[in-house]
Write a structure and sequence with these properties.
CATH topology of the largest domain: Phosphoenolpyruvate Carboxykinase, domain 3
Number of strands: 32
CATH class of the largest domain: Alpha Beta
Number of helices: 13
Mean pLDDT: 93
Shape: globular
Strand content: 15-25%
CATH architecture of the largest domain: Alpha-Beta Complex
Helix content: 10-25%
Low-confidence stretches: 16-25, 578-587
Length: 587
């Protein structure tokens, strides 16, 4: 048998060497037509190389820039945007820039945002024939991939492909996930450096692991067929934002606006992550996270889900009016939550910055946000003064316009008598979370913070009380599933219709909403789980005179105090069948 054993050993070694040779021959190789202007392509993990080569062959960029997340890189991107006429440096502020977009590219485009699954009802619930589902839009993946292949063919000619390695959540946290975004937009690259943990440390953490693949293009190869008067390349007629949950992939074309192009935000952190969370037994939610400490030093963490532009950032950075109470911010938009081994629901903020709605933000409504965005911030579609300061509706007391000229978000001269808005209603500030003076000490804790209560709410001008408490977990899921809110400027909707927005996730479900409700209900099955109390709030009820009945903002701490005490079983409640437990404002 010995000769056969030797022969088999030699054959095995020969096969191994042959396999390795074939592997080397098939290793990803970047086209010689592409110049690497920043970073070292050869040091990228093999899976990342494969992704870059595959997409660069399709998109045909002239240059490749591998982002390292350094301050020097951020400055060079800002300088490039200024040179291109896309951004203006704001001289009166600390390392801040103002960007104006094409007026056709100012918000999330829900009508062109699609989930692609083999089975339609993995994405949307069953409806009657001819009835359009309002909680998710489905399309067949093979057909969409063919369409995208055509759109992306040569779409980056003359441009730079930026390779953005980013971590959603603290790098190395067991709750975090990694993505690689390929984009031809320096605006996206700079903004991702603010909104995510981005750069070389992410690649080091990734190694040969898997990642969410994110591809984005503004859809305007160079040279342009006609001049761009806005210095904001985009392709609104062909815009499409697609998600492939089974492949853990996002492909976005034609829009440079943050919600459509910063693919770590809603696309990854909610749509793809909610599908991953279902598969892995956790939650990816459109929620703020805040820590609340009473005068006795006891602290609890609360998560709260409101639709976009309904006050998440204001509540997350609350300045309490009650003496002795302290509020601290963990996150203002997205929460990833998972039960630990002891059954405690723990949450992280997967983002690294704030992408807040600017109009209405002031020292009266949200002083912490306004202070935070005074440095290292990218403002989009705000107004600017001639001497380099930012302006929007709500800053009348903070910014003295006397003797100064103002340019509105469209680049036109503006005065208070113009009869138009100085800033777009969905104008944004993109600022590092570390700028926030009330950032929670545990906001980057890889274990997450323990959640004691969850709030749901929206804009309801009539018929819905300030707060009520759900009877139990099942009732809480019902309350969240029935959530409604008045539409806002955060998406392309017109008017002020009341829309169903279950869990404040209507535009962000990554899978069938019915399956999503079932997933929430299933969390009760594990008796070890310590389920948070659930509440519904409404800051936006109006009187007959059209004015808000509740002062809101810092006064919301009074409602949070009641929530805090209800978690401990304090305070009597008034039960009003079938569903409401109302707050007694006795304190």
């Amino acid at each position: 048998m010995a000769p056969y054993a030797k022969l088999l050993t030699r054959f095995s070694l020969h096969s191994t060497h042959l396999f390795r040779a074939l592997q080397l021959r098939q290793m990803a190789s970047l086209s010689k037509n592409i110049s690497v202007t920043h970073g070292n392509f050869e040091t990228l993990p093999n899976k990342v190389k494969d992704f870059v080569v595959q997409k660069s062959e399709l998109c045909q960029p002239d240059f490749l820039h591998i982002c390292d997340g350094s301050e020097d890189e951020a400055q060079s991107l800002a300088d490039l945007l200024v040179k291109n006429g896309t951004a203006r440096k704001l001289e009166k502020m600390d390392n801040c820039y103002a960007v104006r977009t094409n007026p056709a590219d100012v918000a999330r485009v829900e009508s062109k945002t699609l989930i692609c699954t083999e089975n339609k009802h993995d994405t949307v619930p069953h409806t009657r024939d001819g009835v359009r589902c309002s909680v998710g839009q489905w399309t067949e993946p093979k057909e969409m991939k063919e369409k995208l292949q055509g759109l992306f063919q040569g779409c980056m000619k003359g441009r730079t492909m930026y390779v953005i390695p980013f971590s959603m959540g603290p790098v190395g946290s067991p709750l975090s996930k990694i993505g690689i975004e390929l984009t031809d937009s320096p605006y996206v690259s700079m903004s991702m450096g603010v909104m995510t943990r981005m750069g070389s440390k992410v690649l080091n953490s990734l190694g040969d692991g898997d990642f969410v693949k994110c591809s984005h293009s503004v859809g305007q190869p160079l040279p342009l067929e006609k001049p761009d008067p806005y210095n904001w390349p985009c392709n609104p007629e062909k815009t499409v934002i697609t998600h492939f949950p089974a492949d853990r992939e996002i492909i976005s074309f034609g829009s440079g606006y943050g919600g459509n192009s910063l693919l770590g935000k809603k696309c990854f952190a909610l749509r793809i992550a909610s599908a991953v969370a279902r598969d892995e037994g956790w939650l990816a939610e459109h929620m703020l996270i805040l820590g609340l400490t009473n005068p006795q030093g006891e602290k609890k963490y609360v998560a709260a889900a409101f639709p976009s532009a309904c006050g998440k950032t204001n509540l997350a950075m609350l300045t309490p009016t009650l003496p002795g109470w302290k509020a601290e911010c963990v996150g203002d938009d997205i929460a990833w939550m998972k039960f630990d081994e002891e059954g405690v629901l723990r949450a992280i903020n997967p983002e690294y910055g704030f992408f807040g709605v600017a109009p209405g933000t002031s020292m009266e409504t949200n002083p912490q946000a306004l202070i935070a965005c005074q440095k290292n911030t990218v403002f989009t579609n705000c107004a600017t003064t001639d001497d380099g300061e930012i302006y929007w509706e709500g800053l009348e007391k903070e910014v003295n316009l006397e003797g100064r000229s103002v340019t509105d978000w469209l680049g036109k001269p503006w005065t208070k008598e113009s009869g138009t808005k100085a800033a777009h209603p969905n104008s944004r500030f993109c600022t590092p979370a570390g700028n926030c003076k009330v950032i929670d000490p545990l906001w980057e804790d890889p274990k997450g913070v323990p959640i004691s209560a969850i709030l749901f709410g929206g804009r309801r001008p009539e018929g819905v009380p300030l707060i009520y408490e759900a009877f139990n977990w099942q009732h809480g899921v019902f309350v969240a599933s029935a959530l409604c809110s008045e539409t806002t400027a955060a998406a392309e909707h017109k008017g002020k219709a009341i829309m169903r927005d279950p869990f404040a996730m209507r535009p962000f479900f990554g899978y069938n909403a019915g399956h999503y409700f079932k997933h929430w209900l299933s969390l009760e099955d594990d008796k070890k789980h310590q389920l948070p109390k659930i509440f519904h709030v409404n800051w936006f009820r109006k009187g007959e005179d059209g004015k808000f009945l509740w002062p809101g903002f810092g006064e919301n701490c009074r409602v949070l105090k009641w929530v805090f005490d209800r978690v401990d079983g304090k305070h009597g409640v008034h039960k009003n069948p079938p569903s409401d437990i109302y707050l007694k404002m006795t304190h």
